[in-house]
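--- STAGE predict ---
source: upstream dedup step, 1 unique chain passed
mode: sequence only
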Amino acid sequence: MTDAVDAAVAAAFRDEWGRIVATLIGLTGDWDLAEECAQDAFTRALEVWSRDGIPNAPGAWLTTTARNRAIDRLRRARVGATKEREQVMDAWTEPDADTVGDERLRLIFTCCHPALTLEARVALTLRTLAGLSTAEIARAFLVPEPTMAKRLVRAKTKIRHAGIPYRVPPLHAWPERLSGVLAVVYLLFNEGYHASAGADVMRRQLADEAIRLGRALVDLMPDEPEAAGLLALMLLHDARRDARVDAHGELVTLEDQDRTRWDGAAIAEGIALLDAAERRDAPGPYQVQAEIARGHATATRASDTDWARIVGLYDDLLTWMPTPVVALNRAVAVAMADGPDAGLALVDGLAATGALDDYPLLPAARADLLRRAGRSDAAAVEYRYALTRARTDDERRYLQRRLAEVQPEG
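--- STAGE serialize ---
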């Protein structure tokens, strides 16, 4: 029973955390109280479900338990505005699906208020809506965990002291919020598509939630091409999800995937969205990234990939996002188009700058190019170093397999 309860609570956390926290923030206006009461509800579930059994509607049970916990906390601090919040919560009923969606969007737009730094906007939403740990968010930003913890505290304090409203802003204010909102959704998708820690290659619920939010944003902003570009990008990536692991749960790289397992409907939808976005003639980084994903998704075989065009798209992307990670991805594309030595020269140049010293995929990329160049001894050294930087179990197993391929015998 314990294993079943643990699994049910874990699944409910993935499915319900953001909904519960968003609902409680909407009711109480207190971010810390909402998170703490949601966490209390999940802790309580481990005890009660082990004794009484798993409820038929775990999400409703958790939401009610968290709401009751919040009422208890407010009653113990019964003063002024707190009393008013308690009265609101006493009249609360379980929200319907549309209301839940609105609460999540309110949460995203509140987190993405321009008074907050971009890093704080993204981090706060990932913590509050998706339930990512501080450590997971820190890895996404390539910063130490204590640094990210301080950012989250500062962001919540800023919202409270500045009186930032918990609402979807009026249309005229959307442009200044858009970049942060899209960044939130895409980082949420990335954490789901390739988990930054743990035993699972993917956290599918996070990827599904990001796509759902992407659809909601497109519905809300039908004339915004970057919103459509982001949704197209996510769909084109997500179309490959079933081919990303083999029958044993091992990671399969893009070039080795069985492309017959890709989701043709998702690819078609992504391409249609991208085409519609590009007809508006307002290019942006998500549309360029979606074009790169289209290049992979429409190649029948890995050898059919138009790498020269992809290099050109990365050149375009660097004008929008001049980051070392984009430059590394371009270097890999150059290696596929012009040979591994050409890519290695670029990768070594990036490494020399020190800009990617904390990026765990740099040694893995360099090891792969050395392997492709036939420099097995050097590749083995780099794979060993990459293993010390690997973040997830599937990455470690993949690197170990590659190391075994190039490791000199004896």
